[in-house]
Design goal:
- By secondary structure, this protein is an alpha/beta fold.
- It folds into two domains: 4-100 and 291-309, Rossmann fold (3-Layer(aba) Sandwich); 102-282, NAD(P)-binding Rossmann-like Domain (Rossmann fold), CATH 3.40.50.
- The chain is built from twelve helices and twelve strands.
- The chain has helices at 13-22, 34-43, 59-64, 84-90, 102-117, 120-128, 157-168, 183-186, 195-198, 221-226, 244-252, 291-309, and strands at 4-7, 24-27, 48-51, 71-74, 93-95, 149-153, 172-176, 190-192, 204-207, 231-235, 256-261, 280-282.
- Strands 8-7-6-9-10-11-12 form a seven-stranded parallel sheet, with helices on both faces.
- Helix 10 links the parallel strand 9 and strand 10 (231-235).
- Helix 1 (13-22) runs parallel beside helix 12 (291-309) and helix 5 (102-117) crosses helix 7 (157-168).
- It binds (2R)-2,3-dihydroxypropanoic acid.
- (2R)-2,3-dihydroxypropanoic acid binds at residues 53, 76-78, 101, 287-288.
Length: 319
């Protein structure tokens, strides 16, 4: 008998197809609430559940799931929406989808970086309103990307992939990470164990660390003040790393030349004051949003479920 699993969100077609081939899968046509997921899990005696980041599996939610549930697999690399200790206490595996979204998330960081430096949003607005007037040699100037020093906070897989791309643009890499990387991964980048010590070197700063209690509001007024004047700030990690009021102050004071943001403290209801700054290039948390990567994330979540239901420790177990 095929195991009952839930995909309580609108899964990509290929993922839905694989899920129905391998499991007795319930696939929703919209993102279900936690209460709906709990009800369905009881009704269908679900053994595995794939979730997406908006579906927060808190201690309270986990406590209400039936004993049939053996694994919750988030289709994301981030797992700040999952209570690992509570799941462990109930013996429910939690897994994420590392690796498969590294490249696309790093690509999006570069998209934001280049658009922020080169005034992509303003150029687009000019073209959309018809252009019709040439610019002098001193108007609408961005800042040069090549040769700049890029600081990367969080040098895990995604941070390293951003560094690899930035090297292709002739950028110098400095990074801050809990641990120094071995030389073959560091590839000549300069290590800082302390963010505050690194910030004055970052003409461009990219956040690539997970959203945890330790990284909450790591970018506050004092941290923005340590950046060089005219710095560019990029975030594809989590909105929780940034005190957005401090970011707004850094934009207002023109301490920052520009910013590129894919993630926000409140999603999807992001702080609309950010869009008033035309030098802020904004995307709606789309780092992994390519057909290939969303399929790969779904497949990886299903692999984890398959492994857990065979009695194995899933490859991406978070505990
Ligand atoms: C991730 O996978 O964590 C992405 O940020 C999507 O939430």
């Amino acid at each position: 008998m095929r195991a009952s699993i839930l995909l309580p969100y609108r899964a990509p077609e290929n993922v839905a197809k694989l899920a129905t081939e391998r499991f007795d899968a319930f696939i929703a046509d919209r993102e279900l609430t936690i209460d709906e997921i709990i009800t369905l899990a009881h009704e269908r005696k679900a053994r595995g559940i794939v979730v997406v980041p908006k579906q927060r599996m808190s201690n309270e939610a986990l406590a209400q799931l039936p004993d049939s549930v053996k694994i919750i697999a988030t289709s994301s690399v981030g797992f700040d929406h999952l209570d690992i200790e509570a799941a462990k206490a109930r013996g429910i595996f939690l897994t994420n989808t590392p690796d498969v979204l590294t490249e696309c998330t790093a690509d999006l960081a570069m998209l934001l970086l280049i658009n922020a430096c080169r005034r992509g949003r303003e150029y687009l607005q000019i073209m959309e309103s018809g252009w019709r007037r040439t610019f002098s040699q001193s108007e609408m100037l961005g800042i040069k990307v090549s040769g700049k020093t890029l600081g990367i906070y969080g040098m895990g897989r995604i941070g390293q992939a951003v560094a690899d791309r930035a090297r292709g643009f002739g950028m110098k890499i400095v990074y801050c990470n809990r641990k120094r990387l071995p030389p073959e991964l560091e590839k000549g980048a300069t290590y800082f164990s302390d963010l505050n010590a690194m910030l004055p070197h970052c003409q461009i700063l990219s956040l690539n660390a997970p959203g945890t209690a330790a990284t909450k509001h790591i970018m506050h007024d004092g941290a923005f003040a340590l950046l060089p004047d005219n710095a560019v700030f990029i975030n594809v990690a989590r909105g929780s790393l940034v005190d957005e009021e401090a970011l707004i102050r850094a934009l207002q004071s023109k301490k920052l030349f520009a910013a590129g943001l894919d993630v926000f403290e409140n999603e999807p209801d992001y702080n609309l004051r950010l869009k008033e700054f035309h030098n802020v290039f904004l995307t709606p948390h789309m780092g992994s949003a390519t057909q290939e990567t969303r399929d790969a994330m779904g497949y990886r979540a299903l692999e984890n479920i398959e492994q857990a239901l065979k009695g194995q420790r899933p490859q991406d177990s978070l505990w």
